[in-house]
Amino acid sequence: GAVVSQHPSRVICKSGTSVKIECRSLDFQATTMFWYRQFPKQSLMLMATSNEGSKATYEQGVEKDKFLINHASLTLSTLTVTSAHPEDSSFYICSVHRTGRDEKLFFGSGTQLSVL
Amino acid sequence: SQELEQSPQSLIVQEGKNLTINCTSSKTLYGLYWYKQKYGEGLIFLMMLQKGGEEKSHEKITAKLDEKKQQSSLHITASQPSHAGIYLCGGARGSQGNLIFGKGTKLSVKP
Q1: Going residue by residue through chain A (116 aa), what tens digit of pLDDT does each one get?
Q2: Alpha carbon distance A72, A116 (integer Å)
Q3: What is the gyration radius of the CA atoms in chain B, in angstroms?
Q4: Which of A6, A18, A95, B39 is the most buried if burial means most Cβ atoms within 10 Å?
Q5: What is the SS3 string spanning B52-91?
Q6: Under an 8 A CB cutoff, do A43 and B102 touch?
Q7: Does A110 reach chain B within 8 Å, measured CB to CB?
Q8: How close B99 comes to chain A (CA, Å)?
Q9: Which residues of chain A have a CB within 8 Å of the CB of B48?
């Protein structure tokens, strides 16, 4: 079964509205989650690292006020795209890091955001 | 900045044929992940390599990481239509779990 649950899978919104995307770790607690963005026919680009109980770490060029990340619990991180514009239309996907002996990175199923 | 080069960009093979996808990093990696993706969908974990010279196999897929931990290959034996998709290599820069990705290899398998 799925280890990471991401919702919604697809969202269409009007320009200027905000959209929240949820990423849940189903099988284990995760102090760290990651948010990526993928434009058509491009690779995944890391946007930010979500840290439970503290501020997210953003990659260079990613606006922290536009992409709000909240990691309030060990199993849930949310990404809110504020005042979305058409150029924010993209595929957003989260990943969860399982550390320890059987280290793995699991990815959610992604969210396709279309801003009209 | 650290980059991950993946080749070939696309690949079309006849069913039953073997194929290899390569992934090269400009710097030594902490670890190397291989995923399969259908565009617009999530990533399916294939393999993770962490030790120099490591080789792992699962069903008909074998992945190797060189001693310097800068180059990896993914080899598929006797390809099937179900192997079609986009293969992504992701390099771990450290133990934190954040990855940089190659641009992917689009694999098509002709029946």
Answers
A1: 678 999 999 999 999 999 999 999 998 888 899 999 998 878 899 999 998 888 999 999 999 999 999 998 889 999 999 999 999 999 999 999 888 777 788 999 999 999 99
A2: 30
A3: 13
A4: A95
A5: CCCEEEECCEEEEECCCCCEEEEEECCCCHHHCEEEEEEE
A6: yes
A7: yes
A8: 7
A9: 103-105
